[in-house]
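Entry for cytidine-5'-monophosphate complex. Fields follow.
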Amino acid sequence: MSFEEDIRAASDVIRDSEEVTIISHIDADGISSEAILALALSREGIRVTTRFVRQIDPLTLDQIPSDSSLKIFSDFGSGQQEMLKEKGLDPGRTIILDHHVSQPAESGDGGDFIEVNCLKHGFEKMSAAGVSYFLALDLDSVNTDLAKLALIGNIGDMMDREHLRLIGPARDILRDGIREGSVELWEHDLNIYGISTRPLPQSVAYSDDLDIPGVSRDPDGAARFLERIGISPLSGNRWPVWEDLSFDQKQAVSSAIIEQMVAHGKDTARLFSDHYLFPGEDRHQASLRNASEFATLLNSCGRWQRPELGGAICRGDRVVAYREAEQMLRNHRSKIREVMLYITDTGVTELSHLLYIHVGGRFPDTIVGIGAGMALSRLNPEKPILIMCEDSLDPSMTKISMRTRPEVVSRGVDLQQALARACELHEGCSGGGHRIAAGAFIPHELEHAFIEDVNRIIAQQYAETCPYHS
Ligand code: C5P
Ligand code: C5P
């Protein structure tokens, strides 16, 4: 079946339902997917209740009510179909909307869930919020107003990072958002994060992708660099954000950065990327004015046990929920920074094909992967990083997160496959994700053996792609 046919099969079942339970992931993609689905279904007169969970595993499966409502899993489920089958979910009354690698339940009665997974149709750069958006459109074309939420989910899952722009069906969502008036595209703009909230020297100094001598990782150096080209603090010594600059000022900054990088022989290939702006959001609520910062705000709610707060913001709450979410955001940012500094200060252990570190119970398992991803550009980005921590729900288990860079993926490394294969070798392990970012839960006594296995599997992946790599 085509993607459109899969969507239609799911929407037909939804139309026939009076009551739906959505089970969604706690990250920005899961929160925005849930909001898209809940809004679209409510518009059809369908009653919706939601459960957010960290991952589908035997513990969290118990939170799913065993009632007659139609169950929709969003942003997970494809890789956990055997578990869903064991839980006794009715395949005809269970829909999976996902973009993770699919592992259908082993043959036998009751394995065929209604699954819409964009990855199966070759759309690798679209997230669950994108799938949910196309489903919402199939229910009613009026739902184009949800394009903005779909973009936030896609950007939250970093679907733009490899090509520095959205491509494929996610680009069609962008077009809907622009046509509908809620989204503005800044094409081929400077590849920095925090264009609406971060003082410019910070933004330029801490871009993961740029290596600008005298500027990168040195906000004072960045401030001097900007002042030399005539960009200086506004009144009250407050630096402008990227969004505040005029077109000419932006050109001046970009040209000066190119000059500096070229003069030092640096690669400028990742200097520019697209930004997705939301002009309708108030400047006083600047964290909502572009897709990547909005996604961070949602992550800071969901990954700290308050996904419903993010859900309220997706539904338009700009007062009570937003105020609380801002506090969550401050906490999230400082904790992620702590994880990153802990990793870089403590140092990682380097194996032949990966870097690893155990952070014990210092940080919640929901954020260690993000911190590891950020630390990677300060370590040896040629090797994937594997971070372990205590599973906050089950002390007998260890949570593993892995991250790598697009260049490493293009050389044949596939973290999802590495973790899935390592999990198959040991009892009690489950894992999955994407080629570039993946995670697993394993019994903690297996840590050592598991890391050795993952290292060996990654070595094999290199060998299979390039037989002469050592
Ligand atoms: O479960 P899920 O797909 O939603 O998790 C996505 C997470 O994977 C993102 O929040 C991000 O931390 C990570 N990721 C990444 N780089 C990418 C894609 C995803 O670090 N290119
Ligand atoms: O938790 P973390 O951000 O490291 O997750 C990275 C990716 O791995 C996400 O896409 C997540 O859904 C996936 N994952 C998984 N199974 C796990 C843990 C994480 O599929 N047990």
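NOTE: Residues 3-182 form a domain with the inorganic pyrophosphatase (n-terminal core) fold (CATH 3.90.1640.30).
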